[in-house]
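ingest -> fold -> write
write: protein_1
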Amino acid sequence: MKNMKICVISLGLFGDVIARTPVIRALKEKYPNSKITVVVDKIGYEILKNNPYIHEIITMDRKKSNYLKYIYFKISTQIKLIIRRFDLMIDLYNGSSSRSMAKLSFAKQNIKNKKGTNVYNFKNPLHMTNSLFEMISDIKFDNVDISPDFFINKYIYKNSQKFQNSYLLSLGSGDLNKILSFDKTFKLIKHIYKNYALIPTIVQNPGQEFLQEKLINEYLIPNEIPYIKLDKKSIDELAIIIKNSKFIIVPDTGIMHLSFALKTPVFCVFTETNPIIVEPENDNIILKSSYKLANPPIYDRNGVPKCTGDIEIKTIIKDFDEFMGILKSKS
């Protein structure tokens, strides 16, 4: 169909939105003349605003602190979906509210989300992006590539920062269970400084500025370990810093997915989720996972075993040294 109008509902968190970008790219490749509209929360707009595969972004404010404002955005978004008369409606968020939104859009075709399919015979069907392609398997794609996308505003490059003899360190996460303890984080920083002569460039995580302050004031300064302290950055500004970094140490958060999209090597200590859900399948994306499965076992809602923060520092350091060996072999 020429000039097909496609709508993709992609509400949700930073990392989830990035993990869904391969689906948007695949849709544009399958339907090159289509116009793709994406429905997102505010953070999703910042992630997708430079994406060339997207024709339009509709932003919702779903915060219920102001209930009248919430109702206004919900109704106005629904009206926008109806009047655009989409040919194809795809709900990647797959929540009760988004399912209603898709159904009431009156699109010509509403892709029904499936469970338990194995159309593509993925090596890792538990990967969050692979599961999305299976979920919408009524649309058949050739040569599925789950590498995420992030496109940086070209004007940001003019003022990009590069830090010598340094690596990037991000501490924050919306889920505090995903944050490694300060003690273990410091011991890893100390090991890197003594054995690799590299110092941390520390990201300021919005809303969790205390993490950066505590690490610096209570651990790095007293132990005379040099560091670089970043101030608040936009997503574009942070992206170019990530892209220019030797590697990044980060929890299982949106910044990790952003680093995948930018092809920056990642070292991650998984203290909650299982790395099998996010491990890249592409050789040009490097992730070294350090983790310990919970014992007795704890499972997530999909039956995947969870990890625990009760991982020994010697294991983390051993895994990090292996990570540095991988980087050296590829340099």
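write: protein_2
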Amino acid sequence: MYILLVLLQTLVLPLVSGIIHLAVAGGSPLVVLGLWWAFWGVGTRLTVVGISQLTNPARTTKGILGIEDHAAELVVHELAFANLSMGLVGLVAPFVPGWGILGAVPGAIYLGMAGFRHIAKQGKNTEETVATWTDLLVFVMVALGVIGALIA
């Protein structure tokens, strides 16, 4: 279920939303796709992750990171607050005049740094591998959206 949700949020839904947006309203493809990757990849992804980490921190500590220490769940709660903060901003940014893609930049940078850190890790499980590459995808697509906005 995790892999399906992550692929929907970071690949399928941003792409479909962007294509529909371009077909209906037009616009710069880089900006439009970046905006939808910001909404889905940063906004919904980090919001859902934050809620999950608050309600079930062991899923992150044990299931994704492979840490068995119960004390690590306290750190995951703190991480959840950061994820919720960035996710909620990413959710509303496309709809707040003047924010646009820029509201999602901190979340995209966070995902990019997490993805780069995970690349070097040996022995990743399937969920962590999917998280690694989709984190990097979101980072790249939001960055391309920002570049598109700057050159538009």
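write: annotation protein_2
The chain has one domain: 2-151.
The CA atoms of residues 39 and 127 lie 22 Å apart.
pipeline exit 0
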